[in-house]
Write a structure and sequence with these properties.
Elements: H1 3-6, H2 10-13, H3 17-44, H4 46-53, H5 62-74, E1 87-89, H6 95-124, H7 130-135, H8 139-168, E2 178-180, H9 181-198, H10 201-210, H11 216-221, H12 223-237, H13 242-274
Helix pairs in contact: 3-6, 6-8, 6-9, 8-9, 10-13, 12-13
Length: 275
């Protein structure tokens, strides 16, 4: 069904397909401009940006310090991850300049995400019915909060634990670990952005539940399977101690449980509307 057939707004019904495309183009232009502006700022403040990006490679990083304090508190020495003397190299003449640009774009994407999503939402919202608009009130705030929370979780929890595990992983004493700049930056960006997207699970479940593609009964049926997968992921990317694995597994399990509650509420609303 066309967009102008779904909306309750008379003004939107007068807009044709090309008008919608033109409007979408300007929303995307403004969104891209916001990412570009933040990328320029990140490029100019490279010292601050790269201190953050390379932070997890330093044993003085905030997460490592807090884990050592927790290790002393609960008398669990394994939790204190110890010193890291990570050697980072650049093997191409343009490497540092290229990764300066790429890193700035990633930072611009993260910082510009709230405005980008808001622009997309401004395009989608007029095509919704009044009851759908009421049901989706505050969606920009929720999506932004979940995304930024996920990015912070990826940066402060997943990335340092992963770095420490991979730094200490050894096939042979004859092999020295000298890490490439591209792999360090790529891993930080990938883990942070992946966690930001992963934290959108409740929003995704809400949409799928509204479309009746997924149900709380289905999610409950596969709850154990999901928890096993979460625990396996936690065991792979963390040191061999239970507390580190719990630090990863708990937030992901919590998101899954929240998603079940959201799906149940959506199902009840749909049933009430049909009654």
């Amino acid at each position: 069904m066309a967009l102008d057939q779904l909306t309750d707004d008379p003004q939107e019904k007068d807009m044709g397909f090309l008008d919608h495309l033109e409007e979408l183009r300007w929303h995307l232009v403004r969104a891209a401009a916001s990412v570009f502006i933040f990328s320029i700022l990140a490029f100019l403040f490279k010292d601050v940006v790269f201190e953050l990006i390379l932070g997890p490679t330093n044993s003085e990083f905030w997460t490592y310090q807090q884990l050592c304090k927790l290790a002393e508190l609960i008398n669990s020495p394994a939790l204190c991850l110890g010193d890291m003397d990570m050697i980072i190299q650049n093997r191409t003449i343009t490497g540092q300049f290229v990764w300066h640009i790429k890193s700035s774009l990633v930072v611009g994407l993260v910082l510009g995400f709230p405005y980008t999503f808001w622009e997309i939402w401004r395009f989608v919202k007029p095509g919704l019915r009044n009851n759908e608009k009421r049901a989706s009130r505050g969606v920009v705030v929720v999506v932004t909060f979940l995304f930024l929370t996920g990015v912070l979780f990826g940066y402060y929890i997943v990335t340092p634990l992963s770095f420490n595990f991979l730094y200490n992983y050894e096939l042979s004493v004859k092999i020295d670990n000298i890490f490439d700049l591209s792999s360090i930056i790529g891993m930080v960006a990938t883990l942070a952005l992946a966690c930001g997207l992963m934290f959108q699970l409740p929003v995704l479940i809400y949409i799928l539940s509204k479309a009746e593609i997924i149900s709380p009964k289905l999610m409950k049926r596969y709850r154990r399977h999901s928890i096993v997968v979460i625990l396996i992921i936690s065991a792979i990317i963390t040191p061999p101690d239970v507390i580190s694995q719990v630090l990863i597994a708990l937030p992901l399990t919590f998101l899954y449980e929240v998603s079940i509650i959201i799906s149940r509420r959506v199902e009840k609303k749909i049933a009430k509307q049909r009654a």
